[in-house]
């Protein structure tokens, strides 16, 4: 690809991203508060899926334990607000991400020594260790009752925005949406830079041919470990942002089915594309919400719908859309 073509591609990506952000910024003004809450959940899960896909899509490692980092971020927020009496969301983010980084570094150091199914089983086993700790040490974690994190006790932007007084919930919904949207934009930009940097290209080389990557001088294990930590931090950030909106942290978010949901978001959207996990997370969030609202057998309904989607769109939503666009482009020539 020539320099001119690369520059054109970057400009097109920038313009498209700015347009999407403008649309997302306008949406709360035209939809009801419930839809705004769903959009916020979708953006949070998109950050988690972006982090996960750095391992699956770019490094070729399938993790079944990313609920550990999502849950770690969530519980750290709960501990910071309950035990330290902190109310600043920025302090919660910094503390939560540092704690998640430590956990991801330890788990990653163990896991990246292995690949394929061995890597997946190790990540699953380690995440279940955290789930067991959260479940058994109920005097610390609250057990199945969880830990409440009331939105009214938190402040944004260093205390400039609080949620006390009348109409606090309505103000929280809209203020927190834009707060999450801003962090989503920053996270997406950082991940795009990582994915398109020499480090990201090295990860793709490891994914495509580990032996050849090692022969050209890439330290495979070190690169995987760094990618694992970055992936964990992003998923931990999603868990941190999820807590104030949910209002409660329980061991359920550490359990293995939640890891499966994060995997499915990336697969549904298309893990071979950068935007696939974002689209997949938003789509999965809406599918699950409306399935729960439709029937008490929502797991069955959701499973059937997801199986049909995967069979109909084997490359994911974004991947299939790109293939159709390429076919249309060739047919018009």
From TrEMBL:
The keyword Transmembrane helix applies. It is found in: Cell membrane. The chain crosses the membrane at residues 12-31, 37-56, 61-80, 86-110, 117-139, 176-195, 223-242, 262-287, 299-326. GO terms for cellular component: plasma membrane. It is a multi-pass membrane protein. Keywords: Cell membrane, Membrane, Transmembrane, Transmembrane helix. PANTHER family: ABC TRANSPORTER ATP-BINDING PROTEIN, HIGH-AFFINITY BRANCHED-CHAIN AMINO ACID TRANSPORT SYSTEM PERMEASE. The keyword Membrane applies. Pfam families: BPD_transp_2. It comes from Bradyrhizobium centrolobii. GO terms for molecular function: branched-chain amino acid transmembrane transporter activity. This is ABC transporter permease. InterPro entries: ABC_transp_permease, LivM-like.
């Amino acid at each position: 690809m020539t320099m001119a073509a690369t520059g054109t591609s970057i400009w097109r990506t920038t313009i498209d991203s700015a347009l999407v952000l403008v649309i997302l910024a306008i949406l709360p003004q035209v939809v009801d508060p419930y839809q705004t809450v769903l959009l916020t959940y979708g953006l949070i899960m998109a950050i988690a899926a972006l982090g996960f896909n750095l391992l699956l899509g770019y490094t070729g490692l399938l993790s079944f334990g990313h609920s550990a980092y999502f849950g770690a971020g969530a519980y750290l927020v709960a501990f910071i607000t309950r035990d330290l009496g902190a109310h600043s969301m920025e302090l919660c983010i910094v503390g939560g991400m540092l704690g998640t980084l430590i956990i991801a570094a330890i788990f990653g150091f163990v896991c990246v020594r292995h690949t394929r199914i061995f890597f997946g089983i190790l990540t699953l086993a380690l995440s279940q260790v955290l789930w067991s700790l959260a479940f058994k040490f109920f005097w610390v974690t609250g057990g199945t009752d969880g830990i409440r994190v009331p939105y009214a006790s938190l402040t944004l932007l260093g205390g400039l925005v609080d949620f006390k007084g009348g109409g606090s919930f309505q103000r929280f919904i809209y203020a927190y949406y834009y707060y999450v949207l801003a962090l989503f934009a920053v996270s997406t930009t950082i991940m795009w830079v990582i994915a398109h940097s020499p480090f990201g290209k090295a990860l793709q080389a490891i994914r495509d041919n580990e032996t050849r990557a090692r022969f050209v001088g890439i330290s495979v294990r070190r690169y995987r470990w760094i990618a694992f930590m970055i992936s964990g931090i992003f998923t931990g950030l999603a868990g941190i942002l999820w807590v104030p909106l949910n209002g409660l942290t329980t061991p359920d978010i550490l359990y293995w089915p939640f890891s499966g949901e994060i995997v499915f978001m990336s697969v549904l959207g298309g893990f071979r594309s950068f935007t696939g996990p974002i689209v997949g997370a938003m789509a999965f969030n809406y599918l699950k919400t409306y399935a729960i609202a439709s029937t008490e057998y929502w797991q069955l309904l959701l499973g059937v719908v997801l199986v049909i989607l995967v069979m109909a769109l084997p490359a994911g939503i974004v991947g299939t859309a790109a293939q159709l666009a390429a076919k249309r482009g060739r047919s018009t020539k």
